[in-house]
Design brief:
The complex is a heterodimer of chains A (487) and B (444). Chain A is an alpha/beta fold. Chain A folds into two domains: 258 residues, Type I PLP-dependent aspartate aminotransferase-like (Major domain) (Aspartate Aminotransferase, domain 2), CATH 3.40.640; 122 residues, Aspartate Aminotransferase, domain 1 (Alpha-Beta Complex). Chain A contains 17 helices and twelve strands. Chain A has a seven-stranded mixed sheet, sandwiched between helices. In chain A, a hairpin with an 8-residue loop joins strand 11 and strand 12. In chain A, helix 12 runs parallel beside helix 15. Chain A is globular, with a radius of gyration of 25 Å. Chain B is of the alpha/beta class and 444 residues long. Chain B folds into three domains: 42 residues, no CATH class; 111 residues, Aspartate Aminotransferase, domain 1, CATH 3.90.1150.10; 255 residues, 3-Layer(aba) Sandwich (Aspartate Aminotransferase, domain 2). Chain B has 14 helices and 16 strands. In chain B, the strands form five sheets. A seven-stranded mixed sheet of chain B has the order 2-10-9-8-7-3-4, sandwiched between helices. In chain B, helix 6 packs parallel to helix 12 and helix 9 runs parallel beside helix 10. The longest helix of chain B has 37 residues. Chain B is globular, with a radius of gyration of 25 Å. The chains are: A alpha/beta (487), B alpha/beta (444). The interface between A and B is large, with 211 and 207 residues.
């Protein structure tokens, strides 16, 4: 389809702007724009059709099954969208004085209370904008804590698992720490011997996802916590997989000191084609003084933003956080109430059902019950028929299914990381199983069908190498090299 | 009773447990060591059916003094510009709303193309060559820019103009510790930054960040500031408001290396601070150090045009501890709101928004009759010098149903008598008359 710039015609427009008939003061020449920006000139009917066509070429959870491992692509209740659009929230300026924002502050405070209970840790900040920023903020807290104890210089290393999301090591570097990796043992738990050898006086913290990105709960978690706490180090819980254990196990009870939530995963903020999200943190009592400023506090029946925090690490984002996400997540949680555990129970049941039905056909690197997701390997298809995880993923598209996460975690070759979430009915799960089994048969009978997949999408496989070697990252207008626009 | 968001029947559950070979869900949780199992019910408020939930949220929303309750002139970084109706309607399409990052391009050509179009409009407005798919907000993109500058200069200092948004400066300082960067601030002189002072401060700096128009609403001598930074060997970075760029010069045209900012003013309601989108644009030479997603054009096996995430070797999921950033989830949906708003406005509409803001600000200067704190050209915000503390004026004006603006003393010591008033095209001359009347009443 055409780009919106290719639909542009000089003089065409959609929006009308109020003109109050007032004189327009002249902008001094040195500040004035010399050349108008080449924004598209399109009428409203054509903008609407353009955006509709873009939506038609996009696949969301609303379109079908989306078992993208680690991303928790669950149903997004529409009442939450209505809530986020209430005028009292939507049109509230973030610098409004606290007495004019009592409803918003109360919602934030209530969400903090709930997150503290779910984490099993008493103090919460809502400020971080996403999980990754939660990680970085958490590491800043670690630094502040050790500096306060005079160990800021000596504790310079953070340990991550070899199964960790890429965000963990990236956050470690951005926080100014050195990185050390620990291995996974044959059961899919952290290798305790490797861990004991690496934890010491230089260790500031462990960052761990539990259940891990293999979808397995670390059976040695109590010993892991003991090793770190005995060494005076802190434990950071990457909440990416919290959807597995809400109401079943709490990170604080496992021994973690800092926890981030991905509200867009566990508590259903729609993922929006890449975002927004939110990454609140819950922490141990003695880490509370370091939390970002401002903090939402309650005094009697009034709420306010507390900026007077002498030990704070500072601010990590504007205002008190992505408020619209808080509204949706709060609404989501209130729809469940104390029965929130049923969410995780269904997520774990759905995942184990898929696992049980697929493990005889695809390789299962760690043969255990899984939690909310599991990792299969297509290495048997690769070895026997030359069909890769990528081929399987692309072929799934022809069944109207979004592919799982592939080639991650890195410790599993030809990985297919599958997370069905709790909201899927059994028929959808069965359809996915049927598709996966058929693809395994096709790998044997007609592998070229898989190498050539997908066959039913608006485009066929795309040349990613060309996108780097001949970078075109914006429309070039008259200089734009013409390629066939396609259907 | 649980929410109606689950889909399994009792019969489904029985069949599934049988297929797994366990008798209960509890058995699946046996991998959780006994002592860390949570055995009681979560202590959270009771479940609400949808109608009661809406009533509860309406009650909370109703206790906020939002723009429909007070006639508001608050700005200071978040602005009440008009968001076209089609933005909300079309972004409610479930395909955009409920998709995630387009890792699988064949499933996501629509959102990829939309991001490519977004990158193009950001580049056009800022005069840059490359834009990412969005950053968290206008604060964090400034910190991102410092990280890029550090790695492309091998210098360990950044310079911030004091007239740069205080929250932006706070976030840069928070991040700077982990980045190993020293942060130096250059004071304003009469409302704007002095180029010579900036040159002196910029020696050995990786980057200089200034804001145009600055936090006081004044137009900085931006070309001179960019030149001053460049002469000292620092990357000049402009923090800009997209709304202003229909009438104000693009940072790329006056020598900036990068342009960043808060995108909220184009496409997003205030929403008590977010989610909005930060934009990050740069000259071509920085492409391999950029943070975040970038969409590129390519072709498929049949030679047809398509779009993919590109330069992914910069990113955390490939490069891990050597990544240019840890960002993963970004602000795509809000960035698309920005794209669609700009398409709706077009070049003419964007210029008209800028001109209407300018005209209203000019009208407000005359009607209000209070002195400006700074004798500088302005765009849509005015720093007014009041005869009384601004906080008291705000409180008393609010009691009359008008929020007159931001008390600058909240961030700048010594500016307790300065009020920052924002004029967007949504305010009318009659609104300005009402503001003038109220300020006369409360200022005596």
């Amino acid at each position: 389809m055409e780009l919106i710039f290719e639909k542009s015609r000089p003089g065409r427009r959609a929006g009308r702007v109020p003109d109050y008939g007032l004189p327009v003061p002249e902008i001094p020449a040195e500040f004035r724009r010399a050349r108008p920006p080449r924004l598209p000139e399109v009428s409203e009917p054509e903008i609407v059709r353009h955006i509709t066509a873009l939506a038609d070429r996009t696949f969301g959870v609303d379109s079908g099954f989306y078992p993208l491992g680690s991303c928790t692509m669950k149903h997004n209740p529409r009442v939450n969208e209505r809530a986020g659009r209430l005028a009292g929230f939507r049109d509230l300026h973030p610098l409004q004085e606290d007495d004019g924002a009592q409803g918003a502050l109360e919602l934030e405070w209530r969400l903090q209370q709930i997150l503290a209970e779910v984490a099993g840790l008493p103090a919460v900040t809502l400020q971080p904008a996403a999980g990754s920023q939660g990680e970085l903020t958490g590491l800043m807290l670690v630094r502040a804590y050790f500096e306060d104890r005079g160990e800021g210089e000596t504790r310079d290393t953070v340990i991550t698992a070899d199964t960790a999301h890429g965000t963990n090591p990236a956050s470690v570097t951005m926080a100014g720490y050195a990185l050390e990796k620990v291995e996974t043992d044959a059961r899919g738990n952290l290798d305790l011997d490797d861990l004991r050898a690496k934890v010491g006086k230089r260790t500031a913290a462990l960052m761990l996802t539990n259940p891990s990105t293999l979808g397995l709960f670390d059976e040695g978690i109590e010993e892991v916590a003991r090793i770190f706490h005995d060494a005076g180090a802190l434990l950071y819980y990457d909440g990416a997989n919290l959807n597995a254990v809400v109401g079943r196990s709490r990170p604080g009870d496992m021994g973690f000191d800092i926890v981030h939530f991905n509200l867009h995963k566990t508590f259903s903020q729609p993922h929006g084609g890449g975002g927004p999200g939110a990454g609140p943190l819950a922490v141990r009592e003695d880490l509370e003084p370091y939390l970002p400023s401002p903090q939402v506090v309650r005094e009697g029946d009034r709420y306010r933003l507390d900026h007077d925090r002498p030990k704070t690490i500072g601010r990590v984002r504007g205002f008190s956080g992505p408020f619209g996400v808080f509204v949706r997540s709060y609404a989501f949680i209130r729809a469940y109430g104390p029965a929130l555990r049923e969410m995780s129970d269904a997520a774990v049941l759905n995942a184990n059902y898929l696992l049980a039905r697929l493990k005889d056909v695809y390789d299962l690197p760690y043969d255990r019950h899984c939690m909310h997701e599991f990792v299969l390997s297509a290495r048997n298809l690769k070895r026997e028929h030359g069909v890769s995880a990528l081929d399987v993923a692309k072929r799934l598209m022809d069944f109207g299914i979004h592919p799982p996460t592939i080639y991650f975690p890195l410790v599993v070759p030809e990985a297919l990381m599958i997370e069905p979430t709790e909201t899927e009915p059994k028929e959808r799960l069965d359809h996915f199983v049927d598709a996966m089994l058929q693809i395994a048969r096709e790998a044997e009978e007609s592998p070229e069908l898989l190498h050539e997949a997908p066959h039913t999408r608006p485009v066929r496989r795309l040349d990613e190498v060309r996108a780097v070697k001949q970078p075109v990252v914006r429309y070039g207008f008259a200089q734009h090299e013409a390629v066939e626009a396609g259907a | 009773m649980s929410a109606g968001y689950l889909s399994l029947t009792d019969e489904d559950r029985e069949e599934m447990l049988a297929a797994i070979g366990v008798s209960s869900v509890d058995e699946l949780f046996e991998q959780v060591p006994e002592r860390v199992r949570f055995l009681r019910e979560l202590d959270v408020p009771p479940a609400l059916p949808e109608a009661a939930l809406v009533r509860h949220l309406e009650e909370l929303a109703g206790r906020n003094a939002h723009g429909g309750v007070e006639l508001s002139f608050l700005g200071a970084g978040i602005y009440d510009h008009y968001v076209p109706a089609l933005v909300d309607v079309l972004l409610s399409r479930g395909e955009f709303l409920t998709a995630y990052t387009p890792y699988q391009p064949e499933m996501s050509q629509g959102v990829l193309q939309a991001i490519f179009e977004y990158q193009t409009v950001v580049c056009e407005l800022t005069g840059m060559d490359v834009s990412n798919a969005s950053g968290y907000d206008g604060c964090v993109v400034a910190a991102d820019a410092c990280y890029v500058a550090k790695h492309t200069s091998d210098r360990t200092k950044v310079v911030l103009a004091e007239a740069l948004n205080p929250q932006v400066r706070q976030v840069v300082k928070t991040y700077a510790r982990g980045f190993g960067l020293e942060v130096v601030e250059v004071p304003h002189r009469g409302g704007t930054t002095d180029p010579e002072e900036l040159t002196a401060a910029s020696r050995d700096a990786a980057a200089v960040i200034f804001q145009q128009p600055n936090f006081f609403g004044c137009l900085e001598p931006a070309p001179d500031l960019a030149r001053a930074a460049a002469e000292a060997g620092a990357h000049p970075i402009a923090h800009v408001d997209l709304v202003s760029l229909g009438v104000l010069e693009a940072p790329g045209e006056y020598g900036c290396a990068m342009a960043v900012g808060e995108g909220q003013s184009v496409g997003c309601p205030p929403l008590y601070g977010g989610p909005h989108y930060g934009f990050f644009a740069a000259k071509e030479e920085f492409i391999r150090r950029m943070p975040g997603r970038i969409v590129g054009e390519t072709v498929d096996h049949d030679g047809k045009r398509g779009f993919v995430l590109t330069f992914q070797t910069r990113e955390q999921h490939i490069r891990r501890e050597k990544a240019t950033s840890n960002i993963t989830t970004n602000q795509t949906l809000l960035a698309l709101a920005g794209l669609f708003t700009l398409a709706w406005l077009g070049p003419q509409g964007l210029r008209e928004v800028g001109e209407t803001c300018l005209a209203l600000a000019g009208y407000a200067k005359e009607r209000i009759g209070l002195p400006l704190a700074f004798d500088r050209p302005t765009f849509k915000e005015l720093a007014l010098r009041l005869p009384r503390p601004a906080r008291d004026v705000v409180a008393e004006a609010r009691a009359r149903g008008v929020h007159p603006g931001y008390a600058l003393g909240r961030d700048y010591p010594g500016m307790d008598d300065v009020l920052l008033v924002a004029l967007t095209e949504k305010r009318t001359p009659a609104d300005v008359d009402r503001l003038a009347e109220v300020l006369r009443e409360v200022c005596g």
